[in-house]
Design goal:
Elements lengths: L5 H4 L1 E2 L5 E4 L10 E11 L3 E11 L2 H19 L2 E10 L21 H8 L22
Amino acid sequence: MTGPSPSARRSRGAGGRRARRSVRRHPPDADAWFGVRCVFRHGESRYEERVVIVRADDFALAIARAEDEAARYAVDVDAEYLGLAQAFALVDDPGDGAEVFSLMRDSDLPPDEYLDAFFDTGDERQGGVGAASGRPEPPR
């Protein structure tokens, strides 16, 4: 069985942008922590997925706050915010080992093909383990 198309499942966030919330079994507490992933484009062919954590009373406010931050970030780094925000309600306060974002995706691909298709295409700009700074090269 297939669900609705990704565009049909999306709801609109601040400014009519595409927004999604990751569902948890229990609603978040007032002034809870959320991880929100936003997607940016640098130049013609470089994309960035960026997760920030924000405090908010609900998913809609978390997305609105993250989108405000995304707009400032895009100006600072001369990028385009593409209007996709996906929120995740943290179970615990941020700290060492705390989960700050999770997204599950259904796929019929075997594990190696799934990783190659979505995460390890060979075009990622990332530092390797043991790199001098341990951080990916900044976008240009």
